[in-house]
Amino acid sequence: MKPGATKEQAKDDRGIRCPRCGCGHWRVVYTRAAFGNQLVRRRECRYCGKRLTTTERAHAVPRS
Question: Considering the domain boundaries, does residue 6 fall inside one?
Fold first, then answer.
């Protein structure tokens, strides 16, 4: 959280922002598996239609 920011402002700072319009609302166009236990997602901004590709890596949770 940024110094002096409220909880609401901190909540707004999370996630991906559209480089074109600054919107934080996305829809996933498609998801596919990739090498190395990764997922590739194609996302589209709900406001302006700009598309981005994100890569996500899953990590193991230790069993207790």
Answer: no
Structure tokens of 21? 């319009």
Q: Which domain holds residue 43?
A: 25-58
pTM, two decimal places: 0.67
- Residue 8 falls within a domain, yes or no? no
Residue 64 within any structural domain of the chain: no
Residue 53's DSSP bridge partners are 42
User: Residues of 39-61 as b/e, b for ≥16 C-beta within 10 angstroms?
Assistant: eeeebebeeeeeeeeeeeeeeee
Count up the domains in the chain and report the number.
1
Q: What is the pLDDT of residues 27-41, one digit of tens each?
A: 999 999 998 889 999
Separation between Cα atoms, residue 29 and residue 41, nearest integer Å: 7
End-to-end CA distance of the chain: 31
